[in-house]
Amino acid sequence: EVQLVESGGDLVQSGGSLRLSCAASGFTFSSYAMSWVRQAPGKGLEWVSDVSGSGDNTYYTDSVKGRFTISRDNSKSTLYLQMNSLRGEDTAVYYCAKDVRYLDLWGRGTLVTVSS
Amino acid sequence: QSALTQPRSVSGSPGQSVTISCAGISSDVGSYNFVSWFQQHPGKAPKLLIYDVTKRPSGVPDRFSGSKSGNTASLTISGLQAEDEADYYCYSYAGRSGMFGGGTKLTVL
Lengths: 116, 109
Description:
- The structure holds 2 protein chains of 2 kinds.
- Chain A is mainly β.
- Chain A has no helices and 10 strands.
- In chain A, the strands form 2 sheets. In chain A, strands 2-10-9-4-5-6 form a 6-stranded mixed beta sheet, with no helix packed on it. In chain A, strands 1-3-8-7 form a 4-stranded antiparallel beta sheet, with no helix packed on it.
- In chain A, a hairpin with a 4-residue loop joins strand 7 and strand 8.
- Chain A is globular, with a radius of gyration of 13 Å.
- Chain B is mainly beta.
- Helices cover 0% and strands 44% of the residues of chain B.
- In chain B, strands 1, 3, 4, 7, 8 and 9 form a 6-stranded mixed beta sheet that branches.
- Classes of the chains: A mainly beta, B mainly beta.
- The A-B interface holds A 35, 37, 44-47, 50, 59, 61-62, 95, 100-104, 106-109 and B 1, 3, 34, 36, 38, 40, 45-48, 51-52, 57, 87, 89, 91, 93, 96-103.
């Protein structure tokens, strides 16, 4: 079955760190760039970051540059998002999505709550 | 990185057609044909409806159609059905970053 499954969301204090994972199955993971998208409670979707299929190229939205790091392990078909120096405004459901142009497959999301 | 501009809400009666606009700028929507539309029901993950401005993934009904004129993309839903009530988001990928519209809540009266 073609699917993405996120994990790693949790309640964390402001200034803390968290690593999210996204396990892919049913497609050739290394052939596709991958994205992270988040949605704050009651708010719209926000593109966060993406990484090329090889992992060599990464891009970030301005608000997370220097704090978040996207990476992937193609041998494990897994995408990661290392989040450091977390802030209240990072509270959101984090989705991983296949590709960067189409976002044609999404996981169910994992909730990150940052408390002050 | 400013968001694309969508109306906050639209509404229509069953069987009618509605159009949701997505206004960008020349360096995103205007320059690329990488505009997608997503449908999101409450508590669910977004679902791809339209990609590359006008293309539909398999399984998406042809009641959903996309278009673009200049810096504005549009999603038209014809033959409205009750299950179309949801939030809709446009998305444009400009080469080094993605950008979503603020979202439009569709109410089926």
